[in-house]
Amino acid sequence: MQYLLLCAAILLPQSLAFPAPVKPESWSDIDLESIKAYLDKFFPVFSKTQNLSLEERIKEMQRFFHLTVTGKLNAETEATIKLPRCGMPDIAEYQLFPGTPRWRKTHLTYKIVNYTPDLPRKKVDDAIKRALMVWSDVTPLHFQKVYSGHADIEIRFARREHGDGYPFDGRGNTLAHAFAPGEGLGGDAHFDDDERWSEFNHEVNLFLVAAHEFGHSLGLAHSNVRGALMHPVYSYVNPASFRLSADDRRGIQKLYGKRSSNS
Question: Does one domain contain both 25 and 112?
């Protein structure tokens, strides 16, 4: 089974720096800088956690990933922070973005601006359509593909700096990112074209990543529930047998309600 950490939406406040901790004697400067950078980015300090020690912040991260809670940079924790992953903080269970952004309509348009060379266009079209259906199957939402003009959700493949201020970082790290609902970039989803996109269980499965990213496009943040689509860890499941978890369903229906029998 493959394990990668997915990327995510970016419509979030800037992380705040936390007080410089005392370095444990067994940690190198590289260890210390790595864990500080990781925690500052993915477990940012908010007002209620301003005074947490480095040990407490490591414990916070370990609890999220269901690791052994030690407060130490042990092998298990170090392996986790080295995994490729996204650029947004992790939270718990299903979560909504600050301010609870959501679309104020149920008919949304999407446009595929460009395509990856890794897959035939028809395969990309199909993966994107099925990824959106993951969410429309359990809500009143409807998605319509458009080919020109404005679209609520614009989908593009890009490398490195691509105009939104959040450059990709090459193969194997950030896989994609999406913006929470709103004007301008709101709802848009970008996929790192330095990855190798696939429809099967090798490289990175486009359907699974797209379904995760569209959760962000609709207003969901990360979940720490293992097996949830919105969990930040990418694990391959057969797309033909994919089922949305109860946690994901509760989150999206909190925003948009349930799909009626005549929707």
Answer: no
Domain boundary among 81, 96, 119: 81
| Domain total of the chain | 2
Question: Taking all residues of the chain, what is their mean pLDDT, rounded to a whole number?
Answer: 83
Handedness of CA 56, 59, 64, 65 (dihedral sign): positive
Beta strands in the chain (DSSP E): 3-5, 107-112, 142-145, 153-158, 176-178, 189-192, 197-198, 204-205, 233-235
Q: Which domain holds residue 182?
A: 107-256
- pTM recorded for the entire structure: 0.77
Tokens linked to 41: 């980015």
Average the pLDDT over 176-191 and give the result.
Answer: 93
- Are residues 122 and 221 located together in one domain of the fold? yes
Q: Say whether both 115 and 242 belong to one domain.
A: yes
Same domain? For 61 and 141 the reply is: no
- Owner of token pair 């008919």: 107
Active site residues: 213
Q: Which of 45-59, 132-146, 240-254 has the lowest mean pLDDT?
A: 45-59
Q: Do residues 245 and 228 make contact, with C-beta atoms less than 8 angstroms apart? A: yes
CA–CA gap between residue 41 and residue 17 (Å, rounded): 9
At 201-257, the pLDDT tens digits run 888 999 999 999 999 999 999 888 888 999 887 788 999 999 999 999 999 999 999
- pLDDT score recorded for residue 29: 62
Residue whose tokens read 């790192």: 192
Q: What is the Cα–Cα distance from 255 to 213, expressed in whole angstroms?
A: 16
